[in-house]
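INFO batch 0412 | record 1 of 1 | parsing
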Amino acid sequence: MMTTTRVLDRIALEAGLSGNHPVDVAALLLRVVERLDHLEQGQQRILRALEALTPPTTSSRLSVGDHAALVALLPPIAGAVGDRLVTVHDLFASDRPAVRVALAHLSARRLGRLFARGVGTPIGTTNGELLIERAGRAGKRDDLAHRVGCRFVSF
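INFO prediction complete | emitting tokens
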């Protein structure tokens, strides 16, 4: 760990204030404040990423594994479909590479059940929070009664 004197000496060297030149204390303090702001911004990014990876603490039907799966799945899916209504069938029929890669290890039934468990539970991702919203069932006339529409809402 560096001492305060060594940190100030290092900042002074970077600012070209080395040797026997008189040190402009105001300029040096400005550099220290800039460096602290930069470190604080980095710390905030790390904290947001950690919060996104932390399983929900509220009572939820999601297990830790379900939560981790949704954290990985939702960003590419939501990025591809936006907030429009889609079914699991639509997702598996998608020609978007990000969606195909995200769904490569899942069956439609498994994904549908995962989405059903995740409905209404905020899922934190590195890009913010997403929510799976159940948007109704397709009518029997269309022979799609088993398909449930989902919408991915960011907030």
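INFO post-check: The two ends are 40 Å apart (CA to CA).
INFO record closed
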